[in-house]
């Protein structure tokens, strides 16, 4: 009887040891997975920085390279004047309006407004690139160009004003410092440390306080692939994406020096 008792006692100890070790082994597998899930991804860093998230202690834009006098997107900045079907030119008055502001463009291609922490960083970076020869908009305030002007519309054509803003393109990456460690660290980058794929566009400003850029009057022949007889039709505006002098055979561009522009 004593032998059987010892045997039962030995088996019981084995069971107790097994029951204690099993949860420890399970925890060892779960912990790394939890840490991995909490790591901040580049897209999360961009989102947190642009939203000025409470999770952040700080967010900075770190500049890597820059290009002054970089032209922005081509855009139509006046209504379309119609002279379709006419065999002679026409004199038309154009009302032109456009505005520029400092913008932040993340790697995914979206443009987002900067939050307070990041906004301070963008302002400080902007100080480095504002010189006696190039004045830039360092903050996120809007600067406007608005005027009225009389010009000639060619025969059997539609006409409108086009604009491309001059800006200083500063590229780099975002450096976010979180209040609480994630995956054992508090500092994360978007898209990566040393990258030059996050862009901050600082509009360049003339001495009179208006935006600098390229301004031109575009005439588009009617009844062509670029225009038809309806002034604001899809065809009439197909050439808007083309840059100065790049509209093709049916498009005529005439650059207007900004020194000729007078306020309405």
Shape: elongated
User: Which stretches are poorly predicted, pLDDT < 50 over at least 5 residues?
Assistant: 1-37
* Overall mean pLDDT: 82
Strand content: 35-45%
Give the radius of gyration: 31 Å
Number of strands: 13
Question: What would you call the quaternary organization?
Answer: single chain
**How would you classify the helix and strand content by structural class?**
alpha+beta
Our measurement of the CA-to-CA distance between the termini, rounded to an integer number of angstroms, reads 113 Å
Helix content estimate: 10-25%
What features would you describe in this structure?
It is a single chain. The protein has 264 residues and is an alpha+beta fold. 22% of the residues lie in helices and 39% in strands. It is built from three helices and 13 strands, in the order ααββββββαβββββββ. Strands 1, 2, 3, 5, 6, 7, 9, 10, 11, 12 and 13 form an eleven-stranded antiparallel β-sheet that branches. It has a two-stranded antiparallel ribbon with strand order 4-8. It starts with a helix and ends in a 9-residue tail after the last strand.
Main attributes?
264 residues, alpha+beta, disordered N terminus, 13 strands, two-stranded antiparallel sheet, 3 helices, eleven-stranded antiparallel β-sheet, 22% helix, 39% strand
Break the fold down into its secondary structure elements and pairings:
Blueprint: H1 2-37, H2 42-50, E1 56-71, E2 75-76, E3 81-82, E4 90-100, E5 103-105, E6 111-112, H3 116-129, E7 135-136, E8 143-153, E9 157-182, E10 185-190, E11 198-205, E12 213-221, E13 251-255
Antiparallel strand pairs: 1-9, 2-9, 3-9, 4-8, 5-6, 5-11, 7-11, 9-10, 9-11, 9-12, 12-13
